Amino acid sequence: MLSEIATLWEQCAIWLGHHAVLPILDFLNITQYTESPIEIATTLMIGALQLLIIGCLFRPLENWIPAEKWADRRYARVDFHLTWLMLVGLFPLFAFLIMTPIVNYLSDVSPAVGDEPLWSVRALFPWFKDHPWIFFILYYLTYDFVYYLIHRIQHVLPWWWAMHSLHHSQRQMSCWTNDRTNYLDGIFQSFILASVGIFWGLSGEEFVWLMLLGELVQNFSHANVRVGFGPIFGRIFVSPEFHRLHHMDFVPERPTLHNCNFGQVFAIWDVIFKTALYNEPLHPTGVTGDKMVDIDNNKGIIGVQVESLKRFWGSVTCLDGWRIGGVVFSKKYRPIHMKKSAKDGKLKLKPHIRTETPIPINEPNKEKNDKKIK
Known about the structure:
By secondary structure, this protein is mostly helical. Helices cover 54% and strands 3% of the residues.
């Protein structure tokens, strides 16, 4: 049975590669720099499979064991459209038609020959070729650590937060939220993370497969479910319970509480660098205190990209956009740094005013929590 499924999968990939992908590569005249059209077709199929897993497994879990109960899912709908557009459209297109040719060119690698850069980790240490599992574990630890560092920077460098704030503006975080991303932000991240793959000697195909695996893990960590991994595994891997705290809305009484849990797949980096937060009750998600970020919830798939790019342009073109620290945005999309009071050391957030009541949390002490947050 499994062999029949594998054969059918291979036949579908061959047909799609030769009849759909190859004509596009020939038209763009980049066949010599890309992986096999069959591999590109396989990635498209994996994206479709990922959508199937999210929709048929993670989405039902949100109904059975929700972390929050919503009257409707109107805010989450745009994330669904962004996800399928990314997985079976923009991501394969960007990865194989743009990123892979660049990676192969910079690495001086020819996919037709199957060689690899002589200066890569894989080439310098041939021992890894006989121990592929150790190689990929070490690579992925490096990849995940670099992602952790990028994520930390995204939250303190104003012009980068201007784009990344789109991801955090969602009031109804769900299994579709992972791909709620500003595309320019995604390009920045992809180039940095691809450099990790080049350093280790990964091919474009291997890089995309491992990235897709990490994306599927992140789809689950964003799901609206009450799932934790316990006191041991919860300090190794990122669970939905762990990552949900990273997306919590701003709490005036505890202004730095949300600066936590930055890990992508592994929680160990948060533990090591003391940014891990556990045993905290549920909080509403979003950035409702900054109306220029919260406005994303009233936009469609194009509107959210436009708004986050306006924040980016307003930040990257002024000095405050390059000064490290937490910010909110003015009506002219300029960053306003949050200052501390000389008396008590607490953040003074005059422009940072909650514009509407947070979404209710499904807890017995909901009213008590709402009063605290307000």
